[in-house]
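User: Modeling request: complex.
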Amino acid sequence: MRSIILATAALALAYPASAQQQQQQVPGFVQASAPPAEAPPVAPIPAAQQRTIDRLQAAALESDHAYEIVESLVSEVGPRLAGSEAEARARDWAVGMLRANGFTNVRIEPFTLPYWDATREEAHIVSPGIERPMVAAALGGSPSTPEGGLTAEIVRFADMAALEAAPNSAVAGRIVFIDEHMSRAQDGSGYGVAVRKRGRCAPVAQAKGAAACLIRAVGTDTHRFAHQGGSSRQAQGASLPAMSISPADADVLANLIQRGTVRVRLDIRADIRENAQSGNVIAEIRGRERPDEIVLLAAHLDSWDMGQGAIDDGAGVAIVSAAARLIRDLPRRPRRTIRILLAGAEENGVHGGAAYGQAHANETHVVALESDFGAGRVWRFDTRFAESAAPYTRAFQRALSPLGVLPGNNQADGGADVNAIREAGTPVVDLSQDGTDYFNYHHTPDDTLYAIDPAALRQNVAAWATFVYLAADTDWTFRGAPAAQ
Amino acid sequence: MRSIILATAALALAYPASAQQQQQQVPGFVQASAPPAEAPPVAPIPAAQQRTIDRLQAAALESDHAYEIVESLVSEVGPRLAGSEAEARARDWAVGMLRANGFTNVRIEPFTLPYWDATREEAHIVSPGIERPMVAAALGGSPSTPEGGLTAEIVRFADMAALEAAPNSAVAGRIVFIDEHMSRAQDGSGYGVAVRKRGRCAPVAQAKGAAACLIRAVGTDTHRFAHQGGSSRQAQGASLPAMSISPADADVLANLIQRGTVRVRLDIRADIRENAQSGNVIAEIRGRERPDEIVLLAAHLDSWDMGQGAIDDGAGVAIVSAAARLIRDLPRRPRRTIRILLAGAEENGVHGGAAYGQAHANETHVVALESDFGAGRVWRFDTRFAESAAPYTRAFQRALSPLGVLPGNNQADGGADVNAIREAGTPVVDLSQDGTDYFNYHHTPDDTLYAIDPAALRQNVAAWATFVYLAADTDWTFRGAPAAQ
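Assistant: Request completed. Predicted assembly structure:
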């Protein structure tokens, strides 16, 4: 009995008022002088809609449609670097996949971007001992090294702060090696800390006269992979070659430096071009009552090229497409338009998201969200809504609760490809995925289907179908001002 | 109390007779007409020796000396392909390490071998879709492909038996792809089954007119690594190019073949030479009473070159060296000679073990054992002794029991580098390591220090010190005939 009592108490905390109570409070929601003990208002979900939600969730949890989509993308296209021929093929694949799933207005919206690809990315320990290779990846945007490579002594710093504090004399002419580790966290917050070295090593080291930058790969695993990723070289005006190396190689460097001088050769051949072709792929379920009000579901089509692009972001492509397909299969379309944005060229600068924001600035986006954090189960629901929308937030929380999704905060990010429209005022949400293991695989050759748990993928589709259906089949608005239309 | 009673009962099962009972039965051991309920005889361990064993085990379990040895080898030498300059440097490192640990007669015994190294080993899916790389490794002994690579349609077989059953017409001109998986087992027995495809694909496929061989890597992990390893091409007279590919790449091939024709390009550049230099490194603790009786401890110095040679076989080098060092630190040397053999060129044909067997055929090896199965804890003690030596086996079992080592069988293998002297009649034992995870790392870039659990390494040293000390400080013999001298 004890456990049952506790469980009931926990439910009471999460949902202080019954659905019936809530319905009595609607409309109005904000009770200015309500006593503190009063339950906060929850927007009601009519019984017919709740039945639809239940059906969507049940259908999602027993379908491997999302897995089939990502398997198709991985098998038939594979890695697809931004601006490459493979990315163009991914767009064709996406158009075919979206049409086959019965969406309308399927189209490609092209844009151009500066292209970067490393056709060679090698690093060797030259001395002490016999020359030997490290497992290395050029950082996105890195220039080529001189023909034959760039050989210099390395100087190790435990973190970026140590480099920043170092005198120029300790750095000049050397290859800076930032040996900072990354912390594992469910919400992925270790990434924001660790990734600074990827973006800032080159400009800071160059200002001190360094020859190149080398970083311990930004990741939480101990496998022999060098995580890829963009540097902010271009934005910062730096032009130093920059690479990441695997944890085991970073350890060897650290061990050897304790014994004496270590010389390393970096060899990068970068293919850099302006005005490469990319594009966003768009598809819709046209709204039956308010077609100009758009619920935007995003993921990105491009990937880094050492992996197969399964969790970054084939999983996101699959989750949003499979969730939308479940809604398309309902007896009638939701009131608002559901739009899928499969963005191009996210990894090297969010070019697709920016292009979408420009092209669609004048449309009414009710809410936007992106799936781009792997394939872990959704564990939390975050919003970035006006305070007045709190009752809707609680209604979404309640609808998502059977899937094990916890209430979150009101500081949602939305995702890189919806940044532009978020900054233009569009409310966003995060169906936050469990990222405990995400940075084991992120931007490595190990980004394969093995990194996807099919059960977690099904739960993602259920959460997405729930949120998207409810957001699209109501007239709820989440902005501070009255609804735009 | 209950748990104590159970524990006592368990001990009674493992050791049916007390030490005192056993001592009454010595000498004699074999009680021809003993009733079935009688306890089997156990050779007694005198109290002073038992105290030494206890001290050795305690010292081993609190020392990271073995870890320091393997860290030194990995950091200062790294990968060391048989016959390479790096392997020569590993011999120099070994001589220095063995001398620093106070062993005597430290020396290199050179030999030559046929050299093989892949200076290029690439594989691509050519069609369908955009050409893309697979993660691949050339199999040891593979010839080069023609300039520009070898491109052909692949034909998939679920296992070697399916290839063997196929008509020549299904194979001729194609690249055979053996997609067989490997089973995980504590004793590593899945390897013997799975590795057949590595050795037999090329000769069988060539006999049927195939263009090349491709295998799903022999391993139990799902990471994006292609396990290296020798093929038996040379022994079988085959000359087909042969490669292994990672599990995720094998899956993509399998998925694409279900959809239609798949073409693949293999590109191997092999450096093949006769009479490359290698050598065994030998060191001793000279026996104080019977110096001509040798207890042989083996491990191998060479490694495949994609990894760092940490668990294969840096760990073995460290375990045997650290165990012998503990014995060397005792107040007096054991009766018999303890000899360390750090063999060269194991991976590409056990050339070092064969050279040792030839050079030392006339010496008296009391017993031999090798550490070459990673760094997992010792979980079982196996012997290959005459039946008359069973009481010694039981004494060893008892001495090893505090370390959690289980009694095993009398079909020990000894290890590849002691095969030659085993076949010449030397008794061998296996301090069998837990290999549950070994084939996740084996022959991959992931063979790094991260694959070593320092606590398991300490337990290995304790088990080795126990066995070696006891074997060397007694006059026990394990051969069928009376002792050779």
